[in-house]
Write a structure and sequence with these properties.
- The chain has 167 residues and is α+β, with helices and mostly antiparallel strands.
- Helix content is 23%, strand content 29%.
- The two termini are 16 Å apart.
Length: 167
């Protein structure tokens, strides 16, 4: 363990939430293991484990700001790769209670793209962190506990226990 007691974190699932959790944990742990039951595609294609992946996706302004903070320059990378940037109020149509809201320049720029494209670009960025280890095509069996069952000590992955300080 390190002085702070934050040696190893494990994240279960490599979709957007898991990828972002993995990225944030790299700021606080010496090592982060990302477990995924699928095999990550090498191109921007849908995965079996993401049933909503074929739906239209985009980032609202605050999501874009968060991604740019975690991954500097990712908005430019997404846009240069074909994503569309625009004012979500001035260019979008918002319907509420049967009426269309007024459009105006809000300065809230979002980005539209496919889910596989976004997830792939974020995954590529996350996997560049030297603290991150990935285990694809693996099945999580459950949590591992201390002998007195008072503390979680790791996770069971395909017949082995992977010790961790945070899961």
């Amino acid at each position: 363990m390190t002085k702070q007691g934050r040696n190893h974190a494990v994240v279960i699932g490599g979709s957007m939430a898991g990828l972002l959790a993995t990225r944030v944990l790299t700021d606080h742990y010496d090592r982060v293991t990302l477990l995924e039951r699928d095999v990550f595609p090498t191109t921007a294609e849908n995965r079996r484990g993401v049933p909503q992946g074929r739906h239209t996706h985009g980032l609202l302004a605050s999501g874009r700001q968060v991604l740019d903070k975690l991954f500097p320059g990712i908005s430019d990378e997404l846009i240069s790769g074909g994503a569309v940037s625009g004012d979500i109020v001035g260019k979008g149509r918002w319907f509420n209670e049967g009426a269309c809201h007024k459009q105006f320049a809000s300065g809230l720029d979002g980005i539209l793209m496919s889910r596989p494209f976004l997830e792939g670009r974020v995954r590529n960025r996350v996997l560049q962190f030297p603290k991150v280890q990935v285990r694809e095509n693996c099945t999580v069996g459950g949590l591992a506990a201390s002998a007195d069952n008072l503390r979680v000590t790791g996770i069971q992955v395909e017949g082995e226990v992977l010790p961790a300080d945070l899961i």
